[in-house]
Amino acid sequence: MRKPLKCPLVLKNIIDKIRSVFKIIFSFIWKILKKVLIVIRPSLIAIAVGLLIGLIIMLIFNPYDAFPALMTLILGGFNGGLKGIGETLELAAPIMLTGLAVAFAFKTGLFNIGASGQMMMGAYVAIHVGVRWTLPSGLHWIVALLLGMTAGAVWGLVPGILKALRNVNEVVSSIMMNYIAGYLLIFLIQRNVFLELEARSRYVQSTAVLPSLQSVFPGSSANIGILITMVVIIIAHIIIHKTTLGFSLRAAGFSFDGSKYAGMNTKLNIVIAMTLSGMFAGLAGAISFLVRGKAINTAFVIFSQGFDGISVALLGLGEPIGALIAGLFLANLRMGGFYMQLYSYVPQIIDIIVAVIIYATAISIAIQALLKHYGERLGVFYRNRIRDPLRVFYKKRIRDPFSQCIKKRREKKLSKKEAKS
Amino acid sequence: MEIIYQLIQSTYLGMTVLLIVALGGLLAERSGVTNIALEGIMIFGAFIGVWGIKIFERYLSRPSILLMIMIVLLILILLITILPEYRYLKKKHSTDKEWKEFKIASVIKVSIAAVVLLISILLTMVVPNIATNPQTILQSKTQMILIMGLTVGGLIGGLFSMIHAYASIYLKANQVISATALNLFAPAFAVFTARILQGGQQISFMSNFMINKVPLLGDIPLIGDIFFKRNYLSFYFSIGLLILLSILIYKSKFGLRLRACGENPHAADSLGINIYRLRFKAVTLSGVLAGIGGVSFVISTSTEFNVTVAGFGFLAIAVLIFGNWSPKGIVLAALFFGFMRTIASSFSIIPFLNRLGAPAEIYNMIPFIATLIILGFFSKNSRAPKALGQVYDQGKR
């Protein structure tokens, strides 16, 4: 029994009230947490599976460094303190945006594999504006960002229109657009913003560089891009979940014919979804290249961030907010790979882990069913063990081992006597 | 005239790879499973296949070891293709008719393996002894190694694609997601393994697998120049494959079932076809072809494998859709792509294009822009398999 509180009644009442308020708040938080946990459980399981398999591979190739390397990998940007966190954020911004682009298209039932091409066009236009135009310092980077977004939107518009009007498979057309962007990028750079000595584009002017966050993350090249990214992701979340447009986009994703039957303009919706998706990817390109000392080489390459975006969108369960979290996670993992080079591993282990994670998210339904099945079997096993009467009997006997020993000795003596007689 | 022949021969390079991989994609998509993983499977198959070639080259002077490895490989493939079927039939208490079919199929498989073995014996043992020209001796052995490399690539590609097949068919995962995972996994694994095991990520080999002239057929005036000079073995393989698959898909029982499975799996299931097994087989076969395509891409374009197949897997999907899911269309589309790529890479030898003076990037862009335009014109009446991309669930209506 608890002792009664020795304090005046008023105080006791107040304490009780505070307690009840806290109880309500905690139960509320707990409910939300439970909901969130149910939603993100497949992702968590997938991440666990991915890290486990990565660990196994590392153990196979070099068993001594595997565990510290894994710790470095998980810590990621935190290894480098504030500087590392800043670099992680810088790395995360484009990945998050391309992830958002892919996720946004997913919501409308489209698979935007062309985020790379859209991003490349956005990057080129931003660099072009940054190098060739002269504008006042506050305005310059904003204009560059906006025009980069527009270029990405145009690049996304083409597959959207082809899909809506001519029923061209958007996967193929956006792959084609990737290649076209890749070659066009080289052509345009050589034409307009070329630095022949180093075979790359020129650096953008100082007025076009995004304001940096060096005061917060000293020593790193983190800039305002991450904040813009977060704002854009929240806007995209609101568009998808709180507006009529978003509802009709999602409806087209759930059932194309159904939404058509309900009187929505599905063709327009497809075009809008692809355009917005391209816009986000273009913004990713602009953000990642409006940085001091960053330029595009003139070798043919298709940016890998677009494919990272697919991973991020899949890992984030096709939600904008999910893309935010997954993008941070992936960027952190990549920074971890950077720091992991101390231990004789190749940073490509991260791609292996990410691939396994995506595979595990794909089969997450099966994994969950498996876990549930084995969990139930385990539960039944334990329950049976407790209820089993024989078990209880054994437990009682085992509790007193000394007496058992004596009993056994007596039995042995008795049996010996019997044998003698 | 010489320029035209050169252009035709280099058109075949791109066409061969695209044709092989797109036919693989055709098998998978006709059974109702999208296979975006072709790129990843190509990389994986090329990685192991080229590594195999590098190892086999060591035994170039000792043909008996090469033959031994070949026999082991063939037996392995035969076991993989025949044994599961046998166990399945035995488990099912199946009818005599099914046993008969199984026997016929396995006899065909064994005879194909025997023919391949015969060819390789010819190439390694008989031809070098008869031929007096030293170049022929060398070539016959390298062709043997190429066959082995393709076999290894196909085997590994098939095994690798089973990961995708298992997830998307039996575990009912989203087909795009599991395929994306493979696409991501293959290059990462190739770089990781190659760097750890041998230091660098490039895997280089020494042999040049080009056939300068096919012995008798190369002497025929026009046809010899077009088809039988400066070609790769994989070209003839792709032509044979094309004929085989167009018969298989349209004239055989397996093809009929395959098409039914892609159009209306529930109806097919109600008539006693095991949809899961059929799809698994189709996707595995597509992986085999993609692996072979990966190896043939690497051997025909360079002398080392540098963890890339230049996006040919994705291009093959484009060719497949461009070709309207039929072997005939795929050949035309692959030829078109190959020709456009040839123009892009060798516009400087064509006097008429060289005079225009446009930069190389424009020519590189042309095939993709042309594809987009052509797709825009003809895609309205293109018809994908109806059940494409849908997870098959027996309980669903």
Give a structural overview.
By secondary structure, chain A is mainly α. Chain A has helices spanning 9-61, 66-75, 81-107, 115-132, 137-166, 170-192, 225-242, 244-254, 256-261, 266-289, 305-315, 320-340, 349-362, 364-387, 389-399, 401-420; strands at residues 194-195, 200-201. Chain A has a two-stranded antiparallel ribbon. In chain A, β1 and β2 (200-201) form a beta hairpin. In chain A, α4 runs antiparallel to α5. In chain B, the strands form 2 sheets. Chain B has a two-stranded antiparallel ribbon. Chain B is mostly helical and 397 residues long. Chain B is built from 15 helices and 4 strands. Chain B has helices at 2-30, 38-56, 63-92, 96-130, 134-170, 175-198, 221-227, 233-251, 253-263, 265-270, 275-301, 312-322, 327-345, 351-356, 360-378, and strands at residues 203-204, 211-213, 229-231, 304-305. Chain B is globular, with a radius of gyration of 22 Å. In chain B, 75% of the residues lie in helices and 3% in strands. The N and C termini of chain B lie far apart (61 Å). Chain B has one domain: ABC transporter involved in vitamin B12 uptake, BtuC (Orthogonal Bundle), CATH 1.10.3470. Classes of the chains: A mainly alpha (421), B mainly alpha (397).
